[in-house]
Amino acid sequence: MGLNTxxxxxxxxxxxxxxxxxxxxxxxxxxxxxxxxxEFASQVYAQALLPNLVARVTQGGExxxxxIAWAENEAELVSRG
Length: 81
Known about the structure:
Elements: H1 38-46, H2 49-58, H3 64-80
């Protein structure tokens, strides 16, 4: 069975595959830190505050409350500049 290259040129993805095409217009693009102002949200994203928060709880063994306190402190530092 050879590679069917015709499906590579379809304007829509074939059934049963992951969708990795440009945004259609019915999706809402957001970034970590939304709905904060863009300056703040971009720093939350760049410093990976949300993934680090999850990692502290799931991999680091911290309690959820301690991890939230850490994230609040980090967010305060980001907001100060």
